[in-house]
Amino acid sequence: MSEALKIGSTVGILGGGQLGRMLSVAASRLGYKTHIFEPGANPPAGQVADQVTTASYEDEAALVAFANAVDVITYEFENIPTSALDILEAHRDIRPNREALRVSQDRIIEKNFLSGLGLKVAPFAAVNSAADLDKAIETIGTPSILKTCRFGYDGKGQARLNSSGDAANAWADMADAPSVLEGFVNFSHEVSVIAARGPSGEVACYDPGENVHVGGILSTTTVPAKLSAGMRMDAVLMASKILNELDYIGVMGVELFVTAEGLIVNEVAPRVHNSGHWTQNGCAVDQFEQHIRAVVGLPLGDGKRHSDVVMENLIGDDMDRVPDLLVESHVAVHLYGKEEVKAGRKMGHINRVSPDSK
Amino acid sequence: MSEALKIGSTVGILGGGQLGRMLSVAASRLGYKTHIFEPGANPPAGQVADQVTTASYEDEAALVAFANAVDVITYEFENIPTSALDILEAHRDIRPNREALRVSQDRIIEKNFLSGLGLKVAPFAAVNSAADLDKAIETIGTPSILKTCRFGYDGKGQARLNSSGDAANAWADMADAPSVLEGFVNFSHEVSVIAARGPSGEVACYDPGENVHVGGILSTTTVPAKLSAGMRMDAVLMASKILNELDYIGVMGVELFVTAEGLIVNEVAPRVHNSGHWTQNGCAVDQFEQHIRAVVGLPLGDGKRHSDVVMENLIGDDMDRVPDLLVESHVAVHLYGKEEVKAGRKMGHINRVSPDSK
Description:
Two copies of one chain form a homodimer. In chain A, strand 9 (189-197) and strand 10 (203-205) form a beta hairpin. In chain A, the strands form three sheets. In chain A, strands 9, 10, 11, 12, 13, 14, 15, 16 and 17 form a nine-stranded antiparallel sheet that branches. Chain A has helices at 18-29, 60-69, 82-89, 98-105, 107-116, 130-140, 167-173, 229-245, 279-282, 287-296, 322-326; strands at 10-14, 33-38, 51-54, 72-75, 124-127, 144-148, 158-161, 179-183, 189-197, 203-205, 209-214, 217-223, 250-259, 262-269, 308-315, 331-335, 346-354. Chain A is built from eleven helices and 17 strands. The model of chain A has no long low-confidence stretch (mean pLDDT 94). In chain A, helix 1 packs across helix 10 (287-296) and helix 2 packs across helix 3. At the A-B interface, helix 1, strand 16 and strand 17 of A face helix 1, strand 16 and strand 17 of B.
């Protein structure tokens, strides 16, 4: 696949959640169709997709049929079983590539990769037993955070250690999963760069956003972020370095801690990212369209921001606020079409656009 | 239907073109599903809808099944056969209502309605024969325009008379369809107001846009329009008057000629309107979402504009410009997923956002 896919082609998307949903809408703006592959019934993305396959990642026949029905494959989450990727990749290109998935699926591989690029990460040590953890605490110290190497998201699979006395409980929380102890980073705030890279190697980054988490879940992203001009440049250069090294195609979210000594990479996500939702109302080309452009081989948009924006997630009972939010000036409401409201569940988000920001 | 439809409900949309497509995307942002009814195969709207019914407006069983599968019905075009509306309305509310359709489907009924409200329209006379036309020319004069009363769009079903010598050819162009001769209005430019009204009677209008047509087809809409503060207020009041009189629910496009003597109503469209596409990138709540809000009974957004925008239609071979447009700063490209490029066919549009406009 060397040139852009013809308009009217179909982008296959693994995962039918809100990211797949917004990717599907963005694809439609460019004249492309989408086909969602999702094990769960009635996926939110299916409501705005041309086709939906409801099947398990173990269903080889369904995977092959899906791959043959689409022109390129992308995904909305990084924890796709390797066996499924092997089957899919035999039939169609997967963008971003397998290496990006391999690196981002495991926290230790990720940290080693980033360190290898000369980027700063928090001090860390692998933990595969209670004894490992005791030893890790000796070098990393406390406070620190124990995290499962894989499958963590929105603060899940994490336990904080305030002292070595917390070790036993923390290790029990990991349920014997391979884990990593991360040293505490004394950061003032977190920012993230939403970066995109196309097949020809061009890179475009959005203005970094400043993230606030509550209970381990992203609560707000604000652009512009509090960031010196130098750090702003560093952030973009760091993201570009990661994308280039991976020969990456698509959008990546790069989370960075801002410290007195510079930026430290927290983690990367090889997909569109919650902290990039502000681009829907702050830029002519949002992160979802940018990802689709990269995946189908169209030139990237330049990612310039036309407005200041505060993105706020609507989580669980925040849905009760929707009636008020609908009538607030310059507020764009984005709901995900999820049937059931659950505590901690991302139900939607809003973008507050500042019209007088320039 | 007195309160808002529950999130997750389904909006039925008659018509599967680009307007239905963008309505469907807007519905998804609010957590609603859509079901498209369209006689033509592979409608653009179907690519981003939850369900599609491909059937004729004469297919009573299909109409009944569609009505029963949705929670409310709206439409993207005004020329829906009355018989189909009768069947649908027996099962579900149609919004905007039948009266709005009746008035806007026929140019003479429309002009009489508008005049009855005290609004200025171009001088006009009904023409049902060559003799009628000769008589009409005596009172209306030339230059003037002969138009079919029904089914005209994008300049189709129109013939210009520069002198009475053009009468025979003009009448021949109408192919015996009931027609209307409209007197020439000496206007400096055309503006349109995209206005919305909810079930409780609340009205919200977008800032008027300035329209430029080429060959009878809308080419560009620019906001803000060249318009005095007084005329801006007049435009909004006129639109509100029309909506209130019709007990209207939804978005309406109201085209106005700007003359030295004030605003003259050209025509109204009981639906989202091409001249309102700029709202997608100029407002937090665009015309498509505003229409869905009204139709499902959610409160209207306030319609405030956060940016200056120039909307430009991509017609036929304009598609060749897409590669260049994709890389222009602050340009949002919206393509409609139509399979075949034809001369005069609306293939997409762009919104050029001015970031330094405030």
